[in-house]
Write a structure and sequence with these properties.
seven-stranded mixed sheet
């Protein structure tokens, strides 16, 4: 699936490959204070999760991982390389993941997000997600642990 049409940003959505993992981890390290490890991505691929990237021939600009089972899906990670943030790539990739989940008969999506990640919370709310709970001390933080909002949305998106 072609995402943009200018030559320098011809990003395609495709399944993540094991050969992508080093680049995906580089993006994680650039974007997050507490990035996922290479081992986590290897395990997600082996488990058969929906692992997708937005890429062109030169780079991977975004990646996402979602588990889908028994009528529901769970967004596990969604990351956009910092140089490409706030350009709609996260939303486009998340919509693709949700579309894949719907085709696999998911009826609801769940996710956790840091309380401090207002950019992501705004994105999720714009897509119809609402907070349904909270997980205390869920994420590692700068000083101790940080709480997570639990959000959900029925599928298909309206």
């Amino acid at each position: 699936m072609l995402i943009n049409s200018s030559p320098e940003t011809n990003f395609f959505a495709r399944s993540m490959r094991s050969s992508d993992i080093d680049l995906v981890v580089q993006n994680e390290v650039a974007a997050y204070a507490h990035p996922w490890s290479k081992r986590i991505f290897i395990d997600c691929l082996r488990a058969g999760y929906q692992c997708w990237v937005l890429a062109n021939k030169q780079q991977i600009v975004a990646h996402g991982v979602m588990s889908v089972a028994i009528g529901e899906c769970h967004l596990l990670t969604l990351c956009v390389q910092p140089d490409f943030q706030r350009q709609g790539y996260g939303k486009k990739l998340f919509k693709l993941l949700l579309d894949r989940a719907e085709k696999l008969e998911a009826k609801v999506c769940f996710l956790e997000v840091r309380h401090s990640n207002q950019t992501a919370i705004t994105l999720y709310r714009s897509m119809g997600f609402v907070q349904i709970g909270e997980r205390k001390n869920y994420y590692p933080g700068k000083e101790g642990r940080e709480d997570a909002k639990i959000m959900s949305c029925d599928l298909p998106l309206t």
